[in-house]
TrEMBL record:
It is found in: Cell membrane. The keyword Transmembrane helix applies. Its main location: membrane. This is UPF0391 membrane protein CBP12_02205. The keyword Magnesium does not apply. GO terms for cellular component: plasma membrane. It comes from Oceanisphaera avium.
Length: 53
């Protein structure tokens, strides 16, 4: 999940450096979304995986 966030971040940085403003904004938004979803899934897995039998 974090791999996709990093990929979108790199795309946003490259697009921003080349002057593609709209595409850079979209890729940055996608990177943020994937990162937040990854954090949420990580927290859920920590909570559900730590239950004592």
């Amino acid at each position: 999940m974090f791999r996709w966030g990093i990929i979108f971040l790199v795309i946003a940085l490259i697009a921003g450096a080349l002057g593609f403003g709209g595409m850079a904004g979209t890729a940055a938004w996608a990177a943020k979304l994937v990162f937040v979803v990854g954090i949420i899934i990580f927290i859920i897995s920590l909570i559900t995986g730590r239950r004592a039998p």
